[in-house]
Amino acid sequence: MSIDRVRQAALREKVMTADEAVQFIQNGMMLAVTGFTGAGYPKAMPTAIANKAKDAHAKGEKFSVGMVTGASTAPECDGVLAEAKALHFRSPFQSDPTLRNGINAGEIAYQDMHLSHVEQQMRQGFYGKFDVAIVEATAITENGELIFAMGIGHGVEAVKNADKVIVEINAALSAGLEGMHDIYGDVGLPPHRKPIPVVGAFDRIGTAGLAIDPDKIVAIVFTNAGDRNSKFAEPDDISKRIAAQVIDFLDHEVKAGRLPKSLLPLQSGVGNVANAVMAGLLDAPFDDLTGYTEVLQDGMLDLILAKKMKTASATALSFSPDALARFNENIEFLKDKIILRPMEISNNPEVIRRLGVIGMNSMIEADIYGNVNSTHVMGTRMMNGIGGSGDFTRNGFFSIYVSPSTAKGGAISAIVPMVSHHDHTEHDVMFIVTEQGMADLRGKSPKERAKLIIDNCSHPDYRDMLRDYYDRAFVASQKSGGVHTPHLLLEALSWHQRFVETGDMRIK
Amino acid sequence: MSIDRVRQAALREKVMTADEAVQFIQNGMMLAVTGFTGAGYPKAMPTAIANKAKDAHAKGEKFSVGMVTGASTAPECDGVLAEAKALHFRSPFQSDPTLRNGINAGEIAYQDMHLSHVEQQMRQGFYGKFDVAIVEATAITENGELIFAMGIGHGVEAVKNADKVIVEINAALSAGLEGMHDIYGDVGLPPHRKPIPVVGAFDRIGTAGLAIDPDKIVAIVFTNAGDRNSKFAEPDDISKRIAAQVIDFLDHEVKAGRLPKSLLPLQSGVGNVANAVMAGLLDAPFDDLTGYTEVLQDGMLDLILAKKMKTASATALSFSPDALARFNENIEFLKDKIILRPMEISNNPEVIRRLGVIGMNSMIEADIYGNVNSTHVMGTRMMNGIGGSGDFTRNGFFSIYVSPSTAKGGAISAIVPMVSHHDHTEHDVMFIVTEQGMADLRGKSPKERAKLIIDNCSHPDYRDMLRDYYDRAFVASQKSGGVHTPHLLLEALSWHQRFVETGDMRIK
């Protein structure tokens, strides 16, 4: 029974439907809503808010809200709200097609920010008070503690900073999640901060639940539907070749004595290629791996189940349907091997730097000097956002970017003269890997990097074009006084323009 | 007597001239050389190495070395070595005109990297062993501890990782420097790292000197000349207006309850504008300020002497001749108010994030979306390097970028459609300030930022050009499918190209 999950009896009188709870949401409000990479987002309230917006719009009234989440949610949250034109502001990350279209049409103001900055800015009061927090939970304990769902994200700060809290209790969640969360709410603000006491990637530093002022809870809504659960593609040949490159490199660093045989804690970005690298680690010559990541996906789960990985820390669990079943079946085995933290801890610069995390993320494109674009298609169109990639890239021990060398059947090169948007600069990016090969950029000047990236990473279809660009840029930059980083300023972004105009970066 | 500064008698037999000590430097070696923003660099050895290189070149022999410093040095170090064509690799930062020309001619491979990454990569062994460390020191104590000079930079790691050490003892340095350094050598490598115990900006966590294996010391060379000591320009009207903007903003944050009245620890980049902001703080309504910075310059020194600033932490002291005299005169007063740390601590992401440092750095240019270029002139020519600006920008509580709105008598706009090189991205930069005004970019989407930056920060001569660019970019990006960040891909860098061709970004 869902009601059994509200173990503090006094709170049971706050149970209502989403359509009733929507009374607390008014036009112009700022909402803090849980959700991180398709996990832990509310399943019912967004539709109720979307319907309220549609009703208002039908009457010619204004209705929209601002919404700050942990990261991306799902069609039943971002999707329905964007479709109802119920959002005027959205931060810090999204991946929903309908919301994306609203952003790219210029209808929704979207602040694409580092995830590690979110809770600090909420706490500091920069956004002002949040009117309502909507949080997904597994249960509320006897003493009124909130047990979060498959993701925590910014949930702690959402509850603390909102005037009112609406809790969605999701009966589809395994009750076994209780005990997996590690709620640490003491990061505070400067000048009163202490070291965050995570010294090993699996250190438990907090409590299982979040103590919450019961008076703040204005509604409890029951739901019974799983997280968005898209299936991963089976690793294709290209993903497998990328994974093999990464594993070869890590093995090389182990043999050179620069990495322990258990490597260092691994962060893995989302998506099929990252998942393929995790799958590749199943057969790699490393043992006792650890994870310190934002999102734990199928690949890392299988490493734990195969006992190749000892423990993993994340802020959200984002599984395919099959992996979710494996997770639920093995939850007792996994309980002391997976820890879920607030994203302020999972993405914290202090902890990432101390642990020496190996950050591995996918990219849209890299340029010949090692700058990376994670966010914009052809320079102007937002894809998803930077998410936590910058947190791990900037402060990790290694920063690895992976991508197939081409996209759209070869019409797009992932290696370009200049990236059309810069999210990670030449100073931050250490390794670029495609199915063609790997470029180790450490200790290299821009011109040395260009040679490596073109020779090792670019697709043969584009290699001569890149060399031609570089050679002409070198001559032109000599004339204009500096060849530290050769460029042709009017041609640097011409490949993207050609794609916009002809549908192909190649010259026909 | 210089010899008295070598207090461990057994070491005195290693005293020799630089021309004798240069026997330990061979072609192809990798050197770790102290020096940070014109402080703490060796005064004699570089010239001896340069002469050895010239002699070799005159005989038709090859001679060059790689050199990793803390940051920039001075003409007597980078300058003489570059002039003698004695460098083939240089990292992580420089500001010498002769060296810069060698880099921009493509003769010297220069890796421009975040200063917080340097010691970690040295320790990890990525560069291999360093053959020789050349370090400037104030003294060697009775028990063989090295007392560093006006700057530490990467000196601890230089000594630890080099096979041989040459110490330059500089008799021109105040003996009173002893006790000001705080040598902490326990950062280590993952997975064995502990929290760095700096909780307050002035916490002392180490020792005054660095214990050094006496067998490693192959030569002690005496010098008696001060650091490069360029004079600061008196703050001009534009710098004063920039300073006033920054101070107004900080005051506003204090009044809004988002900053304490003593602010948070201040980091200030180098240069006249940054120095003007420090000068402006002398009369600002804040008390008990603290500094947590890389380079302590005249402005911060005067804040301490005026008792507006309680304490300051830095890795180097870089003073004009007048300020150096004030420093030396007041060294007893200053001893418990200034602390010098290894740059791995001064620039450490963990500490900067915990303390909530207010980072304030100058820039070459910003674009209408808030990306900042700190390093390249017109996209291809290296100026100095990123230095520590990224360390403070990325992990600080506030990141502020300051610049006059134009340069070269108005021919260059510091606000452009797209920066010609990206060092700090839209995700990292929170505030842009020119003498025209300030843009607070927090919580803003790109299009909101563009309006703010153009309206508040750009020079009136360029404002209509920027609006025209933005308006046309919006229309074009609508056609190409995304107006999250409007751009005209073939025109984005055309202002820079126009300057290269005509000497003016304005259309004649």
TrEMBL record, chains A, B:
Location of the active site: E294
Acetyl-CoA hydrolase/transferase C-terminal domain span: 327-469
Record: residues binding CoA: G269, V270, G271, N272, V273, I364, N384, G388, K408
Enzyme class, broadest EC rank: transferase
One Pfam family of this chain: AcetylCoA_hydro
Keywords for this protein: Transferase
EC number: 2.8.3.-
GO molecular function, one term: acetyl-CoA hydrolase activity
GO biological process: acetate metabolic process; acetyl-CoA metabolic process
UniProt superkingdom: Bacteria
Ranges where the Acetyl-CoA hydrolase/transferase N-terminal domain occurs: 7-221
Family matches, as NCBIfam families: YgfH_subfam (TIGR03458)
Similarity annotation: Belongs to the acetyl-CoA hydrolase/transferase family.
Descriptive protein name: Propionyl-CoA--succinate CoA transferase
